[in-house]
């Protein structure tokens, strides 16, 4: 049985936030007694004032897609940090069930999917379990890591339609984000100000579909649509008839791997082809981005695969940046590197994995390969110190990584991540003299250099 898309009551639910203004208005400073009658402000070091000075975000709708099993871990961090400057009545939080979270409506965007899919299709197993967990008083976070990601692809078209239905008429841009994405309010507003919202625009980090002419914007990196683009989607649905349109695209979704591919297909059919963001919308993080002449001066508005700690670090960086430079100066990967990375690579790091492996040396190499190594390369597999010496020996080497019996050298610059529990424990290091020389060659990204868009 098909359930026609019905947003009755949704506007009423959303209107509970409309009188709150922006996210910062939920966090009025208070006082508490400390010692003998002394009081202390709880205004988070003036961050509320920071949002009040932000450029207007009144022309955008920010859509944040959450999984119900992760919501209580990530949503508080988002609301307290990087999205707090967004107008609250233009923040759409979508998930797998309806609820009110700290005063904000969270919308179950799957409730209008046809009942047959939800009751019978394997993709909806977690959705059915969510209802049992909710009514049984069980902890939803214990479902994380199950097949919840299969549900994700069914959310994309409903979220786009809901965003259009809820957006005030003055909204020109729709920004769609995942729960594990970080957004730079500074860079996002500055970037959107350079674009024309009167044209149908669908912008993101573009990928092709294998064995197809279809291209799409990667969902994890975030993507942006103008109002005319979404109106083409809505018009296509109205022209075909809502029930027929929904059934056809539900069938398409059921055989597709990913919701961002579904989005690319439905937008292409509506006459809107995806455009490249040129490095502004990112699938990388500060830990995984390869710093090169091309990326150094890009101004990332999003980062993907971040956790709550990284989101908080980026908020603290943005707060300090705005206090020093104001809201009109976007920051670059180079600014993030100088402030958050450089001091952490001054010496080798144990239990750290810095990714690059452009040259590889193995103690277990076969005889012919081993014989091709010089003495420094052979010794490199014996210790971290020897691996660092091998990096010094190779004039293009910027970093190295060692574990007993293996030494990997990198000719490009990556910060890396801590070794996870149960993983191999590598020691990583960087050739600081060459790193600083390369930074000088890339420049400070001011005074006329492009920003990578």
UniProtKB/TrEMBL annotation:
InterPro entries: C1GALT1/C1GALT1_chp1, Fringe-like_glycosylTrfase. Pathway: Protein modification; protein glycosylation. It is a single-pass type II membrane protein. It is an enzyme of class 2 (transferase). GO terms for molecular function: glycoprotein-N-acetylgalactosamine 3-beta-galactosyltransferase activity; nucleotide binding. Its main location: membrane. One of its GO terms (cellular component) is membrane. The keyword Zinc does not apply. Its EC number is 2.4.1.122. It comes from the Eukaryota. Gene3D superfamilies: 3.90.550.50, Hepatocyte Growth Factor. Residues 169-235 form the Fringe-like glycosyltransferase domain. Keywords: Glycosyltransferase, Membrane, Nucleotide-binding, Signal-anchor, Transferase, Transmembrane, Transmembrane helix. It is found in: Membrane. Residues 18-48 are annotated as: Disordered. Belongs to the glycosyltransferase 31 family. Beta3-Gal-T subfamily. PANTHER family: APPLE DOMAIN-CONTAINING PROTEIN-RELATED (PTHR23033:SF47), BETA1,3-GALACTOSYLTRANSFERASE (PTHR23033). This is N-acetylgalactosaminide beta-1,3-galactosyltransferase. It comes from Elsinoe ampelina.
């Amino acid at each position: 049985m098909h359930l026609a898309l019905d947003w009755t009551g949704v506007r009423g639910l959303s209107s509970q936030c409309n009188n709150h203004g922006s996210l910062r208005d939920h966090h009025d400073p208070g006082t508490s007694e400390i010692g003998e009658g002394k009081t202390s402000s709880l205004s988070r070091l003036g961050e509320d004032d920071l949002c009040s000075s932000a450029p207007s975000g009144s022309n955008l709708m920010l859509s944040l897609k959450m999984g119900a099993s992760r919501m209580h871990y990530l949503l508080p961090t988002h609301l307290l940090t990087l999205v707090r400057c967004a107008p609250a009545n233009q923040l759409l939080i979508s998930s797998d069930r309806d609820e009110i979270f700290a005063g904000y409506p969270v919308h179950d965007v799957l409730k209008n999917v046809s009942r047959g899919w939800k009751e019978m299709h394997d993709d909806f197993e977690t959705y059915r379990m969510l209802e049992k967990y909710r009514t049984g008083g069980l902890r939803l976070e214990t479902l994380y890591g199950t097949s919840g990601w299969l549900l994700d692809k069914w959310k994309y078209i409903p979220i786009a339609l809901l965003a259009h239905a809820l957006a005030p008429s003055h909204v020109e841009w729709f920004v769609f984000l995942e729960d594990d994405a970080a957004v730079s309010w500074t860079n996002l507003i500055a970037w959107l100000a350079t674009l024309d919202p009167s044209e149908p625009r669908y912008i993101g980090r573009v990928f092709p579909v294998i064995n197809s002419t279809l291209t799409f914007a990667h969902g994890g990196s975030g993507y942006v649509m103008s109002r005319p683009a979404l109106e083409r989607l809505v018009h296509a649905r109205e022209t075909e008839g809502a029930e027929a349109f929904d059934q056809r695209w539900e069938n398409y979704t059921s055989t597709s791997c990913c919701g961002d591919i579904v989005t690319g297909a439905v937008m292409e059919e509506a006459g809107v082809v995806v455009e490249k963001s040129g490095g502004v919308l990112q699938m990388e993080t500060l830990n995984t981005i390869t710093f090169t002449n091309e990326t150094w001066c890009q101004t990332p508005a999003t980062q993907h695969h971040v956790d709550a700690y990284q989101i908080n670090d980026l908020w603290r960086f943005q707060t300090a940046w705005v206090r020093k430079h104001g809201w009109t100066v976007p920051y670059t990967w180079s600014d993030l590197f100088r402030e958050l990375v450089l001091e952490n690579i001054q010496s080798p790091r144990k239990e750290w994995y810095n990714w690059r492996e452009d040259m590889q040396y193995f103690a277990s190499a076969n005889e012919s390969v081993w014989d091709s190594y010089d003495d420094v390369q052979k010794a490199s597999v014996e210790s971290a110190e020897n691996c660092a010496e091998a990096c010094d020996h190779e004039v293009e080497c910027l970093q190295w990584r060692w574990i007993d019996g293996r030494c990997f050298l990198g000719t490009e610059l990556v910060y890396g991540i801590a070794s996870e529990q149960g993983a191999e424990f590598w020691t990583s290091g960087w050739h600081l003299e060459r790193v600083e020389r390369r930074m000088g060659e890339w420049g400070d990204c001011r005074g006329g250099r492009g920003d990578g868009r």
